[in-house]
Amino acid sequence: MGFLHRFLSLSLTVSSLAAAQSCKLQFDGRLPTDLVAADLDVANDFFSNQFVIGAGLTVSQAVRILPAGAGSLVRSPNPVLISDASIFNGQTAFRRAELLPASNNGADASTQGVKTLHFSVLKDAVRPLNLSHEYQLAFLESADFSTNQFVLKTGTILGQATKDPDTLQVFGNVNDGKVLFSTAFEAGVFHNFALKLDFDKLTTQVFFSRDSDDLVSVTDVLQNDVSGRGQFHFGVLKKPVGGVGDITKNGFQEAEIGEGISFGGIFQEDSADGCISLKP
Ligand SMILES: *[C@@H]1O[C@H](CO)[C@@H](O)[C@H](O)[C@H]1NC(C)=O
């Protein structure tokens, strides 16, 4: 298998500025069409140029920016790639490539008040995930790294009997382990999520749609402990199988993986006044 195949991939959106957007933005990860991967290696308005990629790698080794698809008003997938070498912070049993919003330093306003987090995921038809494993595709990690206040997972969830691993599951705070919403992970379709996070009342409400459909509320306003500030991650965190104890270092990962996921429409808006964008 060639070097280029040995990658996990994720993708970013190229968005049209014409996309309806009226709420005040907290951060915006929708890339302009003239952005190239190397632009993400230096400080930029979109994503951290340091985290989370494998030791010794640059973001541009993990990101491939493609030209925007003609006629794509809202999003066009651009693969972000990581290799077997993408071992972050000595976590030898994890494979990680995640994008963190540039302004989200763990103590910024993105985890205060009422904010709605938007992102969309699409399967990579060329590089399917291995559903024997558990994957985290989007999550908020608390500032003290002790918990994830929400996680979008897919695959075979560790410690659980996963009925159908080909499912997208939004978990609340992993200390409680509750699934807030789940839906089939269909091929060839963007799955659009918006999570309304109330950092005062400690609640979460999930909105969801497919493709270009408007988002609709798919849960009530649910109690969920979103306290602890922290950082939002978007990407592929592949956990090992058969690990005991500290699974960041123990468990099996096969070599020469070639897996991917596509991301789009990553942004966060201020919903303190109730504003929420329902157009994906
Ligand atoms: C999926 O993962 C398991 C465990 O790592 C591995 O044994 C298997 O070969 C993988 N399957 C494919 C199709 O890559």
TrEMBL record:
Keywords: Signal. This is Glycoside hydrolase 131 catalytic N-terminal domain-containing protein. The keyword Signal applies. It comes from Staphylotrichum tortipilum. The keyword Glycoprotein does not apply. Residues 1-20 form the signal peptide. PANTHER family: GH131_N DOMAIN-CONTAINING PROTEIN (PTHR34612), GLYCOSIDE HYDROLASE 131 CATALYTIC N-TERMINAL DOMAIN-CONTAINING PROTEIN (PTHR34612:SF2). InterPro entries: GH131_N. It comes from the Eukaryota. Residues 25-274 form the Glycoside hydrolase 131 catalytic N-terminal domain.
